[in-house]
Amino acid sequence: MESNITAPMPQIPIVDTLNYLALGDSYTIGESVAASESFPYQLAALLPGHKVNTPTIIAKTGWTTDQLVSAIDNSDIKDKTYDIVTLLIGVNDQYSRGSQENYRTKFIQVLNTAIKFAKGDKTRVFVLSIPDYGVTPFANGKEAIIGPEIDQFNNINRQASANAGVHYIDITPISKQAADNLTLIANDGLHPSAIMYHYWVEQLKPVIISRLNKK
User: 114 in helix, strand or coil?
Assistant: First the structure.
């Protein structure tokens, strides 16, 4: 006779408690979804064996890289350090027709700041690529223009990340899936849904866990 009792899932012991800093724009705060559904909060909840304190988030909808740099300079965290730092910035540089050279300069600046926040340990910094919003309803069929421009900005942040020796997670292909799957888009027709953020986390999580497991 089969038993209907389900064995409890084994508990993974907590090995440490981590502080997490997320730098960015609307994609980091999770515009149009609940805060708990944003990728930093989902990530903090999904690192087995690690307790992550409430994420510190320096991000705002519409911020360019210049504005992120200024916000960090005017914040109260300048002397603090973190165990994990994520950085996702640049879509508003492209949207506002900012120059790629200015983006390169300011991205490198904020990336170096992120490394300082990570106690000078570049392996604790995780850069996410800029999503391609050209496939969203908001873009109104301008993917042929927006997509290539996003790729150009991503080429800049990818190269800067490689030069700095930080981790780079390319989530742009996931964002492009929204062209055929509107469940990946929030109700505003532009920003990612909680589902898309979960896919980002699933790509980001193993990279972070691998780093955290190296003492």
Answer: helix
Q: Is residue 82 within 8 Å of 54, Cβ to Cβ?
A: no
What are the φ and ψ backbone dihedral angles of 13, each rounded to 5 degrees? Answer: -65, 140
* Cα dist from 163 to 86, 152, 191, 204, whole Å: 17, 17, 30, 20
**Token pair recorded at residue 79:** 């002397």
Query: pLDDT (tens digit, 9 = 90+) per residue, 148-158?
Result: 999 999 999 99
CA–CA separation, 184 and 198 (whole Å): 10
Determine the Cα–Cα distance for residues 191 and 132; give it in Å rounded to an integer: 10
Full-model pTM: 0.92
β-sheet bridge partners, residue 205: none
Helix or strand (DSSP H, E) at 128: strand 125-128
Q: Can you say whether residue 51 is alpha, beta or left, with left for phi > 0 and alpha for psi between -120 and 50 degrees?
A: beta
